């Protein structure tokens, strides 16, 4: 490039022109020179054609020719140097080579050469540009004189002439322009004056003293018959709107609005009528529409900046607008001859009233708009309502063929030059609809109702208006079928009304006031009523209309208040028919649709979509406990499962496509539709798992595996769980994993595998697709934030039913060697690799040994809070022994007599877990060491140990249970048992006396008094036929008969644990172990007589009850180790309904349960007790219920754990006694009320731990501090009064729970 010829210069100029021509719009749109420079500097980032420009190609080639060889040499040097050391990243190479290149002599010479060349080229281009500009101006003046009607050249203020004029613009020039704009002046002079005005900066013009006069003159000139002149004035207005501050543009806007108002009020102007319609090719109409459109564009832009200016400016704009839109012509003549008002033209340019939406968005402007509407311009709202009413009356009165014209224009793209009167009325209706819909969102807007209409006696209330909207959905015509879907959705009346109602539904306060009442719901359900009765529906109630209705109903059902309305009606205590509420009608209709029992839609292509829409409404209902209770009679799960099986068979039979393209397309579309419908049905079935009882129904359908596979596929694709669900899959997974079949289905779906793989990736590997520029930071928390989600997921996944199915009877791999690439895939692998690290091979296989092992120990600590899980892991893997050995290896031997434990994160964590799994007791009965070190000289004062027994410091001091003196109230209660003439009366007396004692002196109900009370009360109940729920079973086995029978290893360890706890409480003696063993053997044989053999792949159904019998252990301790009294009590107690809910093994594969319930492996405590706990929790402690959902955890899982182990480790012994006594005396439903009372007691803690995102860990690990059953007795009595009829009835139905 030493030589630069003239030809090279021309080529370079051509390349630069191409570049500038391509970026012209971007540069001219820049507000300043600095912004234009920024645009050019970042052109490569913003312009996708950047590398295609000839100038860019030229520069790239020039750089390569000049510097290419040097760059390659530098790269080779760098790589050879690095190979001797360690490998380096790509970014480092680039940085190094770039730095060396920029510092080189060749680079500096190249830049100097390029700069010189570009200076020559640019200077030449500037000179040529100035010559061209002068020639252009001369040519333009010549053209202007020859063609006076033609448009001027571009008047942008960035040309030289504009700048020169703006500098010279002054007061005198404005006066000259005023004189030249006089109507008497020649056309050319007026054009010249207007051209000069457009070229001047608007701020200079508006700041002149004669501005007001000019404004009036311009307003008058807007009526000039010459369209070119009028257009130039509008152009000046547009420039002013764009470039001037609000206080200036306000005046322009006001003048234009006032001009239009006068224009419409003047009788001299030829404004079209409804009968003639609007021909938008007419010059007068074009001119008018341009003015309206300019005003409308400013309306839409003004809200973005008017908040920065005084309120009076905004109010003046609002008032002038409303004043213009309220203009009405004399209504004396016929409607067809009515002159069109301004609102029709605004509706034409802004059909969906976007201007009103923007004005109503901010409180600043909304207040002014609503105040003026209420005080001065309410007629605007009245006419909008009137328009909607007229349109509805037209739809109702006329046939479809006659009114299709109203909506036909929405889909006809070819027809763009003429709008008939009917079409104008329809456009105005759409505008009115959108305006009213936006108005109803706001409280002050709703206060404008009721509205008084002409020719109508009654006022139009909010409810009337919403009902009108609803009726429009199924009365209004649809667009012709040949129209495009996009246009149909945008402007068809049903779609527009649905869009408005959707917005109202999404605003809770507005929905409660407008939608949540019986009248609106009845209007929505009217076509469904008619379809089910077989009567003639609204003439146009198509499938599309039903889909719209279903969408609105689904939105109503997704909000608590709306759901309550659908379930129980507006008056919950109404004596009306139960089946008449919205939920019942929707369920009946959905069932008929699924069964294809509605002839009107037979063979319709849209039928699956209609079905899906209404099942979606049902899904919102049966996805809640209270909703499911209402829909149980309709057996929707069976209908949906039947439809799914049918669809699944059809999809398997879909023919293979042949060569013909049309055939391939139709078969492919049919296959896709079938697949979509099949997935929709699986999703509907899956949502039954949102509640405990719903999960039972799902398992009965036999589709749980397919549903969970579908769920996992959506989860893996990170798809939303459902359109109306606010949270993710957490609650569903927690519910499902609380059952054995659910856990197995989760395993087979791949969900557990994916979760464990994700955990291992975060814990051990790190992501492969992330370039490592610096090492990961060392975690400071025991569980790093990256692993927290996986940790909580595993906690949710591993209640005892799941653990038993996934781990039961399976050995650990315990391999001699583990590959570093070997990733765990199941729960057994997690136990083997993270929890029980009993070999060097396991430790060496971990990259982050301490971090990973602490994670495993934390998981073990949470999982073992479920005592059955603890016993299972102890029985199968000797967890305690492994941890004790690890502690032994962590000892530092200073001398022969002195041994110190090394205190580190792992030893502290192991110490905590060992104490937790060895000690049984409530909050006041055991002391757990902390998991963190303390500040000071002695960071960990708690003694560590490597063998049992535990140091005494972990044992709380428990006072020996001494018999309390006989109390008068206790005497009265015992006296009740002697007066048994009237069974019902004495039962009530006993219960009243028990309640009185629990409220006043709860401590009396303990010690030796409690067994006596329980024995006598249960004896009386078992002798009363009305109180017996189960039949009497004859049992004759003796101790000798059962002595040789064996108990499971879990039961044997549970016996040791019970005796240890009983001895700690001074309730049991050393010989108690043999006695409890005999009691449990008798119980197994006694219950086996009432069981049915069942073939199942579930481990929990193969043989005896899988866990330990905590109720019998508790009762044995209450009876102070008396085996005869304990078993005699259990025999009598087994006849009572309460036994089904307190004594879990009582109904294990019991013949008293329906076969499908037995096969599900779900206990009545889960599908009945915890179901009602969730249902009542939502009503009684709604914040806690919401906290559970936000945490992705289900109350049913923790309640099942509490109840299964009789609150061991969660309550002190006396409270456990009170729990059992309360349920025995007052009924099994008190089990539900006690759990609600616990949640009420824990409310603040639950809310706090929801924020810290460890709710499930808190509930499982922490005892129920400060909770006493007696403190909540009055509250539980209120719960009994409100809910006992429903809860107890359902508990009594467990034996016949077949629907």
């Amino acid at each position: 490039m030493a030589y630069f010829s003239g030809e090279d210069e021309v080529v370079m100029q051509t390349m630069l022109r191409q570049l500038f021509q391509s970026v012209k719009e971007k540069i001219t749109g820049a507000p300043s020179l600095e912004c234009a420079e920024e645009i050019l500097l970042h052109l490569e980032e913003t312009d996708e054609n950047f590398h295609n420009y000839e100038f860019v190609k030229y520069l790239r080639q020039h750089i390569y020719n000049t510097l290419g060889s040097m760059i390659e040499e530098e790269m080779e040097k760098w790589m050879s140097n690095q190979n001797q050391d360690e490998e380096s990243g790509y970014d480092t190479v680039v940085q190094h080579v770039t730095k060396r290149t920029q510092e080189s002599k060749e680079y500096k010479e190249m830049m100097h050469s390029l700069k010189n060349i570009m200076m020559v080229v640019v200077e030449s281009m500037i000179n040529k540009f100035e010559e061209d500009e002068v020639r252009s101006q001369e040519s333009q003046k010549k053209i202007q004189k020859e063609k006076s009607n033609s448009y001027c050249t571009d008047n942008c203020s960035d040309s030289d002439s504009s700048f020169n004029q703006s500098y010279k613009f002054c007061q005198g020039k404005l006066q000259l322009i005023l004189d030249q704009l006089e109507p008497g002046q020649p056309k050319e002079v007026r054009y010249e004056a207007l051209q000069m005005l457009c070229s001047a900066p608007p701020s200079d013009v508006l700041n002149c003293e004669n501005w007001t006069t000019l404004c009036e003159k311009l307003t008058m000139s807007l009526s000039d018959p010459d369209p070119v002149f009028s257009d130039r004035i509008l152009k000046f207005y547009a420039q002013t709107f764009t470039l001037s501050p609000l206080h200036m543009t306000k005046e322009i806007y006001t003048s234009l609005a006032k001009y239009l108002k006068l224009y419409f009020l003047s009788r001299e102007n030829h404004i079209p009528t409804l009968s003639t319609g609007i021909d938008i090719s007419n010059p007068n109409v074009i001119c008018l529409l341009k003015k309206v459109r300019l005003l409308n564009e400013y309306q839409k832009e003004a809200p973005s900046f008017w908040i920065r200016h005084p309120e009076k400016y905004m109010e003046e704009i609002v008032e002038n607008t409303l004043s213009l839109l309220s203009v009405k012509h004399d209504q004396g003549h016929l409607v067809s001859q009515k002159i069109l008002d301004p609102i029709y033209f605004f509706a034409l340019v802004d059909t969906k009233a976007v201007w009103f939406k923007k004005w109503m968005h901010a409180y600043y402007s909304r207040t002014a708009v609503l105040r003026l509407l209420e005080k001065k311009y309410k007629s605007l709202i009245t006419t909008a309502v009137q328009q909607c009413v007229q349109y509805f009356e037209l739809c109702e009165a006329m046939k479809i063929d006659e009114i299709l014209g109203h909506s036909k224009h929405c889909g006809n793209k070819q027809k763009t030059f003429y709008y008939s009167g009917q079409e104008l009325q329809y456009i105005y209706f759409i505008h009115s609809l959108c305006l009213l819909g936006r108005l109803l969102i706001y409280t002050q807007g709703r206060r404008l109702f009721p509205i008084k209409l002409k020719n109508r006696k009654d006022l139009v209330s909010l409810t009337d208006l919403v009902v009108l909207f609803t009726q429009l959905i199924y009365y209004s015509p649809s667009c012709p079928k040949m129209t495009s879907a996009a246009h149909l959705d945008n402007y068809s009346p049903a779609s527009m009304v649905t869009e408005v109602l959707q917005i109202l539904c999404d605003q809770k306060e507005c929905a409660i006031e407008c939608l949540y009442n019986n009248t609106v719901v009845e209007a929505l359900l009217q076509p469904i009523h008619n379809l089910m009765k077989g009567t003639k529906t609204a003439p146009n109630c198509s499938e599309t209309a039903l889909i719209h209705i279903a969408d609105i109903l689904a939105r109503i059902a997704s909000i608590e208040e709306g759901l309550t309305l659908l379930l129980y009606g507006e008056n919950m205590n109404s004596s009306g028919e139960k089946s008449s509420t919205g939920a019942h009608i929707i369920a009946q209709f959905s069932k008929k649709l699924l069964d294809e029992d509605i002839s009107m839609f037979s063979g319709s292509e849209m039928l699956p979509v209609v079905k899906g829409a209404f099942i979606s409404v049902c899904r919102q209902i049966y996805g809640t406990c209270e909703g499911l209770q209402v829909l149980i009679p309709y057996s929707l799960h069976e209908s949906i499962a039947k439809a799914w099986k049918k669809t699944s068979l059809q999809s398997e039979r879909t023919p293979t496509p042949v060569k013909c393209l049309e055939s391939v397309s139709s078969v492919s579309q049919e296959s896709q539709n079938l697949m979509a419908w099949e997935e929709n049905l699986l999703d509907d079935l899956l949502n039954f798992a949102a509640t405990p009882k719903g999960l039972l129904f799902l398992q009965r359908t036999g589709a749980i595996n397919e549903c969970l596979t579908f769920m996992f596929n959506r989860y893996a694709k990170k798809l939303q769980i459902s359109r109306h669900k606010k949270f993710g899959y957490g609650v569903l997974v927690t519910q499902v994993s609380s059952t054995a079949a659910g856990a197995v289905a989760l395993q087979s779906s791949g969900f557990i595998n994916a979760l464990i793989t994700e955990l291992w990736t975060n814990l051990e590997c790190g992501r492969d697709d992330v370039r490592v520029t610096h090492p990961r930071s060392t975690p400071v928390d025991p569980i790093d934030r990256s692993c927290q989600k996986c940790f909580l997921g595993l906690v949710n996944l591993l209640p005892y039913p799941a653990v038993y199915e996934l781990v039961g009877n399976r050995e650990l791999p315990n391999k001699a060697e583990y590959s570093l690439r070997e990733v765990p895939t199941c729960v057994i692998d997690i136990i083997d690799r993270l929890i029980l690290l009993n070999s060097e091979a396991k430790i060496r296989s971990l990259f982050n040994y301490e971090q990973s092992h602490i994670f495993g120990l934390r998981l073990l600590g949470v999982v073992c809070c479920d005592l059955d899980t603890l016993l299972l892991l102890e029985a199968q893997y000797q967890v305690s022994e492994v941890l004790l050995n690890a502690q032994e290896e962590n000892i530092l031997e200073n001398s022969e007599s002195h041994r110190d434990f090394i205190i580190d994160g792992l030893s502290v964590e192991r110490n905590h877990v060992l104490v937790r799994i060895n000690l049984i007791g409530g909050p006041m009965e055991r002391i757990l060491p902390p998991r963190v070190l303390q500040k000071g000289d002695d960071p960990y004062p708690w003694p560590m140990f490597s063998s049992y027994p535990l140091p005494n410091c972990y044992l709380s001091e428990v006072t020996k249970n001494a018999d309390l003196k006989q109390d008068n109230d206790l005497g009265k209660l015992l006296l009740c048992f002697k007066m048994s003439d009237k069974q019902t009366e004495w039962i009530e007396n006993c219960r009243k006396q028990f309640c009185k004692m629990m409220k006043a002196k709860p401590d009396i109900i303990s010690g030796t008094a409690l067994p006596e009370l329980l024995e006598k009360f249960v004896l009386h109940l078992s002798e009363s036929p009305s109180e017996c729920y189960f039949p009497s079973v004859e049992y004759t086995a003796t101790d000798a008969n059962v002595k040789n029978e064996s108990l499971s290893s879990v039961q044997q360890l549970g016996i040791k644990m019970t005796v240890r706890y009983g001895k700690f409480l001074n309730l049991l003696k050393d010989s108690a172990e043999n006695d409890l063993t005999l009691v449990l053997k008798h119980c197994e044989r006694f219950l086996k007589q009432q069981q049915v053999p069942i073939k199942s792949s579930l481990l929990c159904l193969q043989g005896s009850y899988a866990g330990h019998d905590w109720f019998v252990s508790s009762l044995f301790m209450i009876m102070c180790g008396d085996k005869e009294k304990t078993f005699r009590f259990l025999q009598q107690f087994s006849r009572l309904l309460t036994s089904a809910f307190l004594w879990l093994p009582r109904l294990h594969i019991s013949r008293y349960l329906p076969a499908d319930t037995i096969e599900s492996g779900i206990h009545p405590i889960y599908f009945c007790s915890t179901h009602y706990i969730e249902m009542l929790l939502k009503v009684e402690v709604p914040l806690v219920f919401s906290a559970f959902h936000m945490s992705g955890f289900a109350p049913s899982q923790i309640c099942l754990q509490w109840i299964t182990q009789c609150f061991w480790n969660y309550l002190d012994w006396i409270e456990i006694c009170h729990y059992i006594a309360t349920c025995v005396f007052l009924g099994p439903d008190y089990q539900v009320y006690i759990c609600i009372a616990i949640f009420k007691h824990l409310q603040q803690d639950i809310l706090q731990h929801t924020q810290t995102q460890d709710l499930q860990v808190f509930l499982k690990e922490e005892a129920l501090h400060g909770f006493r059953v007696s403190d909540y007795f009055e509250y539980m009595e209120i719960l009994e009064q409100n809910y006992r009829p429903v809860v107890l009835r359902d508990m009594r139905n467990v034996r016949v729970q077949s629907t």
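The longest helix spans residues 105-146. The chain has 66 helices and four strands.
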